[in-house]
Amino acid sequence: xxxxxxxxxxxxxxxxxxxxEPLLLVMGLGMQLIAWPDELVNDLVGRGFRVLRIxxxxxxxxTQLDHLGVPNLTWAALRWAMHLPVTAPYGIADMAGDVAxxxxxxxxxxxxxxxxxxxGMVAQHFAARHPxxxxxxxxxxxxxxARHLPHAQPHVRRALLRRPPAGAGEAAIVEHLMHxxxxxxxxxxxxxxxxxxxxxxxxxxxxxxxxxxxxxxAAIVADGDRSALVRAITAPTRVLHGxxxxxxxxxAAHDLAARIAGAELDLVPGMGHDLPAALLPxxxxxxxxxxxxxx
Length: 295
Description:
Number of domains: 1
CATH architecture: 3-Layer(aba) Sandwich
CATH class: Alpha Beta
CATH superfamily: Alpha/Beta hydrolase fold, catalytic domain
Helix content: 40-55%
Radius of gyration: 18 Å
Shape: globular
């Protein structure tokens, strides 16, 4: 269902008991709510959570902002490298405002929040700007964006900036995405290619929004360093990260946990920048354990 929020419509999937502890899951760059595996959602529901998954603006079935145009990401990256201001069609803070609007529409004063990658950046803004609305916070494979941190490996950055040829059909788009996902996936927990292709095909058929992904990426670049922002986070926080993440190197997790008072750090050997099936029970247990710290 679509929920009015912040002047947009945000697609929402709502599962679990209506009276359960509400848990909001926020996904990463260009990803849709279906990127949160059903197995993980079912595990969390079984632990008593009311699990809320959303499509971020410009992704999935939420409002597409094509009237804002497609940003020049090369120019944005150059300005960032030169320590110059970067402008974007909207900001990560705006996306955090979308989260607040969804909760308002649902009549939920406070929720547990779990954000992955860019979703973790959105969650950082939301938790810092609306501390009374965040019961607990789980930040997965994300970063403060501090300049001193190591960057994604060069071949990964190049792959993320490539686009399929104009007019490419479903098969070509899926193969393009297969290449990207294979570069960032967990080396210790490989996903079978057939399963990866099935999930990516389902995602492309549901919604393929490359221009929206470009706008989200511009928002990440423009957001810059959140080191000062995250010091305002007061919710019990768990930072979960893979030791073998080629997109957001593990140093980001150490930095993030050090900047949030009382944060717990869970580092996973063999994990890259994905949600492998073998680790889903560990993820669900981590979210539940962190939520229990509230009580």
